[in-house]
Specification:
Strand order of the largest sheet: 1-2
Oligomer: single chain
Helix content: 55-70%
Distance between the termini: 52 Å
Strand content: under 5%
Order of helices and strands: HHHHHHHHHEHHE
Length: about 200
């Protein structure tokens, strides 16, 4: 009886938390029916990120987003982590043709041949940048001198143009200015929470 009571209280508390969560005003793109999306918006998106492993994961996921919605990628995120060895940079950089073929046949991720191939070559270039700058974090943040940019309602900027151009020059693929702008928003270099959002900031 006690366990049933405890279980009922837990369910009630979870419903209360969900209700409170849904009452918050967020950015217009958030799908309130998708708890993973809400969680991502509230706890990850726009928060400054300096860990290279995380920066690599987000770069790969953003490259897979090209032509698709971020929600589509986010819904497959755990499958991507499993398929890509938890985004171990060195492992991904050494993926064989056999491994790439295995990924192309994995129905749980986005099976785009060119994006999978780009993930491997981009991992190699990511590591080159790490060696050059000491970390990819130092590289990506040096474009703003470590400062966070606050802006909304645009999908590209001179900053994303510059970084995109530099990454392309180094040989990276699927790093156009719109993808890079989205990436910079995701890792907190650019804070784009909208005015009605409870996480909106101007500085």
């Amino acid at each position: 009886m006690e366990s049933q009571k405890s279980s009922h209280m837990t369910m009630h508390n979870n419903k209360s938390m969900d209700s409170e969560s849904n009452q918050k005003s967020r950015c217009s793109w958030v799908n309130y029916k998708n708890q993973a999306y809400i969680q991502y918006h509230d706890t990850e998106w726009g928060i400054p990120q300096y860990d290279d492993h995380k920066l690599f994961e987000m770069l790969i996921l953003e490259s897979f987003q090209a032509g698709l919605s971020w929600e589509c990628v986010l819904n497959k995120r755990e499958s991507f982590r499993e398929a890509f060895d938890n985004f171990d940079i060195e492992k991904v950089s050494n993926y064989s043709q056999e491994k790439q073929e295995e990924l192309r046949n994995n129905p749980r991720i986005i099976r785009n041949k060119l994006k999978i191939k780009a993930a491997v070559s981009n991992a190699k270039i990511f590591m080159d940048i790490q060696r050059e700058y000491g970390s990819f974090s130092k590289y990506i943040w040096h474009f703003t001198d470590g400062k966070i940019i606050y802006e909304t309602d645009i999908t590209s900027s001179p900053l994303s143009d510059t970084i995109s151009k530099d990454l392309k020059k180094r040989g990276m693929k699927f790093v156009g200015t719109v993808i890079i702008y989205s990436y910079l928003q995701a890792i907190g270099v650019i804070n784009s929470h909208e005015k009605q959002c409870f996480l909106y900031k101007t500085e």
